[in-house]
Amino acid sequence: MQLIFLKKIRVVISLIFFIVTLFVFVDFTGFLASRLIGVILWLQFIPSFLKFIGILSIAAAGFLVILILTMLFGRVYCSTVCPLGTLHDIFIWISKKFRIIKRVKFTKPHNLIRYTILSILVLAFCFSSLFLMNLLDPYSLTGKIFSDLFRPVIYFVNNVLSRIFQMFDFYSVYSVPIAVFSWPTILFSFCFLVLIILLAIFKGRWYCNNLCPVGTLLGVFSRYSLFTIKLDENACTSCGLCAKECKAGCIDVKEKKVDFSRCVACFDCFKACPEDGIGYKYHFRKKTTPDIESDPSRRKFLKTALLGTTAVFSAKIVLGGKKEQQGISTVPVTPPGSISIWHYTSKCTACHLCVSACPTKVLQPTIMEYGWTGLFQPKMNYHAEYCNFECVKCSEVCPTGAILPITKEQKATLQIGTSKFIKNLCIVVTKNTACGACSEHCPTKAVEMVPYLGDLMIPKVDEKICVGCGACEYACPVKPDKSIYVEAIPYHHKALKPEKKIENQKKTIKPSNDFPF
Amino acid sequence: MDRREFFKKTILAGVAAGAAMTIGNLGKVIAGKVPAPDLNPNSGPSAQGPYDLVAIKDGEPAQMFDKAIESLGGMKNFVKKNQTVVVKPNIGWDTPPERGADTNPDLIKRIIQQCYSAGAKTVYVFDNSVDEWRVCYENSGIQKAVRDAGGKMVPANSESNYQLVEVKNGKKLKQAKVHELILSSDVFINVPVLKSHGSAGITAAMKNHMGTVWDRRFWHRTDLNQCIADFAAYRKPDLNVIDAYRVMTNRGPKGVSEDDVILMKSLLITRDIVAADAASAKLFGTEPEKISYIKLAYEAGLGTMDLTKLSINRIKM
Predict the structure, then answer these.
(1) Whether the Cβ atoms of residue A100 and residue A232 lie closer than 8 Å to each other
(2) A440 part of contact set with chain B, CB < 8 Å
(3) I need a surface site. Which of A62, A387, A400, B314 has the fewest CB within 10 A?
């Protein structure tokens, strides 16, 4: 039938989105401008939604476009824009090629699972928590796979190439540090990828129709789509060929019905039907038959879900907790532009795009440091690196608005933490030798060297002009606990500008027309 | 790095690599890459100019270098035909040239040009930057200067490029991981910028060596001044060129703004790394013996701290 071309278009669009999104996450050269990254990710549903309610701007209205498309044609997001959907499709395609796949049988929808998840998530969100959203959002999950799993592989291959090229005296392919990756995040992404592969092979788009909150939400909307995919009751011979192709398992051949709330709009079934009996139909053409899954129990689920979430929220997030280790912030330092730890944790879905884009790699995923509702949200890891004074990359690329755009000028006086000096750990005190690594690295000279014993100089911190970039903490050579570190401040605010010129500095250099020797 | 160029070069490299393999040059190229390190500090080109040190002022960086090197008998006294040269500027910081935190790019450019005129095979430039190296290379203007002069800008951000060496006679620094170009190049030209330094007092020639090693933190942890002096004995540069065109007088070594910088328009060149730092200290308005590592290096017999004992050519342009 004429609509077969739709599948080809769908495949092309999905591959373009997938490849470009993958590139955004694994690129280390800064090849794509931040604006372009914003365009590429504009349609990602949850990030766009979060950003939109934060800044109320058309610049973040991508999710509205998706909603409109869903109201017209169903869940087209799931088979084009969604990188996790395409990841599924790739494995489904491979397993079909190798004939591993078992056909996904039609089942009744698991409404208990999907609506419970969605309602807990919505409820949690009302309490400004991203619980479940950051764990189940398909874009963010794929982001973690790209950033934490694929990126190290790409880096490794690049570094091998770089080494080979160097043997030929060729230095333009430079190596990128791999050491910064943390095993727990790699392990998580790996396990999740394995899960997706298994699900894709044996259950098709099971994740999308049971766990994925975007899939469930769009499924609710797609019930009322203007055009839905339907079986032509007159043409259909119940041969089951379309259902065999369906990776969502949403075609009920016996009843000649398509559960459009679970249809991911992949259009694979169009080609399968020898009778040309399946395709888009105007939804409201005739009196609609009762919805295949209007189920009275949904209300009950919502109720149970409500109870469940209230229980969840009575358990309060405890940030960090007391640490015995000295020389490290008790709560994580959040990146410049994230306004406050609350703003940040209630907006970040842990897609790890900032982690990928950060040129110095100071932004690192955490595990539990933000509490269990903030799993994998990145922090400023000053033991790994420090924040470049002139760089605002993370604020430019963040798709959810957890890190809002700031200019270099704003950043120059934006305090995200303050430097704390633990004198009794300092080299100058413990060994009586010169050091000054902290002051050396400080971009504002908030850490200054002042006279100590004899010729020795010791650091002194002026918190008012400290921006909390972590250069001092990174540079401090004291082991195991650092003698200077950045303590997070809950609300980021303006730091004072460093004085134009230090007036009391002794002017040793006399202007002279002659040589002093 | 220019992104387009990066990709272009990446492809070119692949082609070049393939070509080299087919010609069968692989063994030779690899063998030529890391020869035994030249540990004798006096084994560089031996011709001595009439002067121990040339100090020059009131010119532009490139002009001053031309004039100064000429008075030491020209670059051919330092670089012989087909030799490989490593030029080590200070590219520690993500700052523009006006901030005086990194070595002047025009000076680097002219040094490379002079090396090639003297017949150098390849001139390499690198620094183990403190700030993120790509932005340092780019914003210091040095990457462009090197490219314009036909030199090779080498990333130094990977530990795999550093080799562990013994530091003989080191009091505190017994071993260090040193960038392979310092070990393999025939000629080592040290081109620091003179700046204030919070704990060491000033930074110039000897302290610039910290950008040739991998683990700087060890130095800071283990008596910074002694480590600087210890390492100065390990591989003396064949030539030290001190950029004192823009001098950061306080809040060094990174500085906060251009207010920290004065225009001194001076340049020093000498083989003697201790003399280089001693003269730098004088330019900075202090005495060499007040800078710990200069004194330590002098006491270890690495060079002359007493400038009155040197024959100095003082040039005003």
Answers:
(1) no
(2) yes
(3) B314
